[in-house]
Sequence to fold (467 residues):
Amino acid sequence: MPTVAGVDSSTQSCKVVVCDADTGKILHRGRAAHPDATEVDPGAWWRALREAGDGLLEHVDAVAVAGQQHGLVTLDAAGQPVRDALLWNDTRSARAAADLVDELGGPEKWAEAVGTVPVAALTVAKLRWLAEHEPERADRTARVLLPHDWLTWQLCGGPGSAAEPVTDRGDASGTGYWSPAHGAYRHDLLSRAFDGRTPQLPRVLGPLEVAGRTPHGALVAAGTGDNMGAALGLGIEPGDVVISLGTSGTAFALSDHPTSDPTGAVAGFADATGRYLPLVCTLNAARVLSSTARMLDITLDGLGPLARKAEPGAGGLVFLPYLGGERTPNLPDAAGSLMGLRKANMHPPNLARAAVEGMLCNLADALDRLRAQDVSARRVLIIGGAAKAPAVGEIAAEIFGTPVTVPEPEEYVALGAARQAAWALAGTPEPPHWPLAAARQVTAPSDDTAGRRIRAAYAEARSMVYG
Ligand SMILES: Nc1ncnc2c1ncn2[C@@H]1O[C@H](COP(=O)(O)OP(=O)(O)O)[C@@H](O)[C@H]1O
Ligand SMILES: O=C(CO)[C@@H](O)[C@H](O)COP(=O)(O)O
Fold:
């Protein structure tokens, strides 16, 4: 029986699943933590991958890595990191992003060129920041990779080996210098952002192409970005919208054609199957709940049950969840706000409920942004760490005003990477058919008044603070 491994190297941790390549059945799992920071030594990801995959990766026939998107890994001529990688949620590049947008002639020009308007998260904005603030390090940068590219290269032998660094369409589409519509790098945009420098870029592999072999002889597939990995792990079809509640909150869907949203809200990414993945990303999701649990001095598992004790609307408390700044809406310098405080509503259940409602109102807006780009949302699926709390699915159905599907909690990003590895191993035109996850269906209340009121209160609070 051939076996395959999938790696999810995400913001907070590295997860590994080993699956039966034919059926997708998960046979083994591993996990290791990542440093809690927005700039991280890529070596820490490699150590976490080896720890999570210890005793597992040596025995598989194929492996693939899905990684947090956009992170800037800068390497010198010897292939060694020039500095710690700047992650997708590091907002220091906000000014650089705004400057790039102005210099090219506005958001429409970027949407047309690469399908996505730069914000602080995009790799191209991080390159501009580096050129401006650390020119010596920029000068030493001979090569630029993304987190999954770098890990894929390490798996294949890394610097000093014959392996060539590669990436895939999905992750390349989050750089801001690769066009999903044309399937090509925009070297001009990269060099303009990097003040004339022209670092080497990884070759972009197609969905079935092979990156190399591990020292143990396992085939290494192309890998992809973590959201593209989740799409493959869930086996979504057009009409499905996935809301992922990890460190980031994302709302994304499959599309047969490239998208470009000049408002900048919807990123026009590519997926891992040769299609496209329009996506809205927020900076604040699962950590809104974990930070609120810490503030209330309760366990994370206790937050959902506490929130359920409050009425919809949290007694008038409104929580704007922009704890780490925000990406959509583009408010990189924002902080969270708790509004509507009154003597009568200052109870722990209201705070717990306001945190869940705030996180989900931000994602309800994301869903609307996707719909505004003609993305159909016949089914809404909720995954990611925060989806493990049953209260989240229930409150989501109320706030989104639509039934939601909550697939059984699983590492869908790692599973998608494993499915990609199985696909590359089989070499078939389509990915192997793996059975879909069991799921809980949550119906929306027949009366949507409460959900509408919650969203209206959230919108009003946001416009009071941010206009
Ligand atoms: N039962 C739970 N209720 C709410 N949040 C949870 C629960 N279990 C885990 N989480 C949160 O999920 C997050 C990790 O989710 P994950 O999707 O793995 O994130 P990432 O992919 O960004 O590393 C953590 O912030 C953790 O606090
Ligand atoms: O920046 C994005 C998507 O554009 C994020 O979704 C990152 O890819 C990180 O994902 P998680 O670690 O939260 O899963």
